[in-house]
Specification:
Shape: globular
CATH architecture of the largest domain: 3-Layer(aba) Sandwich
Keywords: Periplasm, Signal
CATH topology of the largest domain: D-Maltodextrin-Binding Protein, domain 2
Helix content: 40-55%
Protein name: TRAP transporter substrate-binding protein DctP
Distance between the termini: 41 Å
Strand content: 15-25%
Organism: Seohaeicola nanhaiensis
Largest sheet: 9 strands, mixed
Structural class: alpha/beta
CATH superfamily of the largest domain: Bacterial extracellular solute-binding protein, family 7
Number of strands: 9
Radius of gyration: 20 Å
InterPro entries: DctP_fam (IPR018389), TRAP_DctP_sf (IPR038404)
Pfam family, one: DctP
Amino acid sequence: MIRRSLLTAILSATLLSAGAAAAETVLRVGTFLQPTGVWHQPIQRFIDQVNARGADLKLELVADPSSINPFQLGAAVQSGVIDIAYVSGSFYTNLVPEADALKNFNLSVQEVRANGALDLMDKIHREKMGVVFLGKIVDGIPLQIYTARKPESLDLTGFTLRGTPLYRPMMETLGADVAQMPGGEIYGALQSGVIDGYGWPLWGIGDLGLLEVTKYRLEPGFFRSEIALLMNARRFDSLNDAQREVLREESIAAENWFATFLTQVNAEEIAKQDAAGIEAVRFGDAESAELIRKADEAAWKEIIAKSPQYGEELKSLTYKAE
């Protein structure tokens, strides 16, 4: 839901900006996450870097989950309520089914930019949603399964895990039952025994208070958390050449910066989990690799079924079987 107060605030900010600096172009940015913590750093850095470039271009963060439901952020950038969205593909698959494939890329963002895959994503997004796919500025954070009781094998039959459509292919491959609930309800459900575990990226379980109720982390991680930058195409096309080039250049710079940031934060998050006493549970390498292959296969099968036009091409450009 897009709250009326947000629309009023955006209109007021636009009028004030127009009166204060008629030559400056203000772009309104929305995020699907709370504007704090490690997940917010990539978009905040992008905003700061663009604003430092000048080009009569200023980015302002005007929307977050307190004002726009994360699952409506795609519609907000499509309609022009905001100009730029920082959002994961799994939150707008109702508009672009192919966005679900973003989690299944196992080539680096640099590789998929070089081989034309991101150009194809841009084409698809323009056709189906009327937005520009500026970049994939968060990429490669493994999704994990965390539990309160120790798994004895990779067969999780009898486990009930909190999941979302993002996690469901892997959890069902493991034999688990999947219960969907908001992230804020995981703590109580785990503590009360309603669920035995949950899916969450490697990053951020401490932000939810889950370090104290989580005992095990199943390794290896699977799929890859991602967050893209989308921009309303009409707004993008209305900018001058220099402004469009700044946005393109800083999107690529953000992708490149994130590779180092990823390594740093992964190590920090594992250290936090280790300090909390969370045990990494590993089984045979061959068995784990086969499981990931099956989960990837199931996910790609679903993507191709939803997008017979582009699914196979996306897979060929972005995924290498291991």
